[in-house]
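User: Hi! I'm working on a homework problem where we have to compare a predicted structure to a textbook description. Could you give me the structure for the chain below?
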Amino acid sequence: MKASARAWSPVSLALSCVLACIALCLHADNILLFAFEKSAAAGPFACAFLGGAVVLCLAVAVSAHDDEQRRWSIGVGLASAGAGVGFALFLDALPALMSAVCSGALLGFGLTCLLRQWGRYYRSFTFQGALLSTGLSFLLGSCWWFVMMHAGSPFLFCLGLLVLVLSGGLPLLASDIVRADEIRAGLRDVDENWVPSVTIWQVMRQGWAAVAGLMFNFFVIGLTFWPLASGLGLGVVPKPLPYLLVALVAWQVATRVREVSGGMLETFYRVALPVAATIMLAAPALAAVFPAANSTVLSALSYVGIAVLNVLGLVVLFWSAKSSEVGFSKMFAAFCASCAASMALGMLTFQLLGSDASRGVALVLLVAYLAAVLVAEAWRLAKLRREAGLEAGANAPAAEPACDDDALAGGD
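Assistant: Happy to help. Predicted structure tokens:
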């Protein structure tokens, strides 16, 4: 039986708590990472977090099945992330390196596990619903991030992180309990066979640019990790405002489209990515031309592009759940491992090249990304015109043979 697709669900917005936790662990501009940096443990925390995420991805790729019991996996994610917060709470009582490594590894494993379960939950949405829910979840996640940035001490920060972990996992657990009750009552099939509307090839052929954009964002997170951990950042960027703009656009698009292919939805996807990359390039260019410009305004402008890449990249990941020939679990493992590798590469690039050269590398990669997106779009349009020309030629009426007067006259 094909599961009925729905537009969205208010429960799905609890994903914002998991996204906020991941951002707080990977962006070093918060009081907990500052405390770890004082003991030279911020780097080990981030590396352990990425290692925990990769361990979860390897476990998923080797042994997971899409029909597994969700409740057990959700419980493991909650327990692991909660234990990670516990180790962070004992930062002053334990050796700093031990606290950082244990906390990072457990948080990376647990939060990635919860993110995967949210991806499985999102498979019941239409593409429009996934776009709308993801945009709103990122908006709420940026609000939680903004509130957590003003925590007065590492202890309060960890308590807030624990609340976010519970808020991100318990709704999943509750939805699974409701699902089990519906199965027992005969309101839902035991085996929900998700009939794919697209293949994995179609997903990646159409969505590679969004995936590459999200990987670029993780690369930049790696580049800026140590400067932010040392307190050398530009201050608190008003992230909720860029995500509010993206969420409003996503709302307008999602409420006006009916089909995944063609129309406003596809136009939004194809226009948003090059525009986002252009905006991200415009911010450093404006900073160079106008040195006196407000750095906060330029950072907010650049973050509009980052928000677009984040939202569309995660939507493509969740939409890959509609593919059956690979399976969402393995697709998720490859996707998250690639993002973790991108951040690790960014951290390594900063250590090898330093701040100025790393910034140049990021700009070169962004220009290459924009060029690749534009070339791919030009190639697609040329292919469509060629196919349209061939189809028009095939449908053209054949020319009538010339009339032979002598033959009609009997050959006289």
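For your comparison, note the following. DSSP finds 14 helices and no strands in the chain. The mean pLDDT is 80. Good luck with the assignment!
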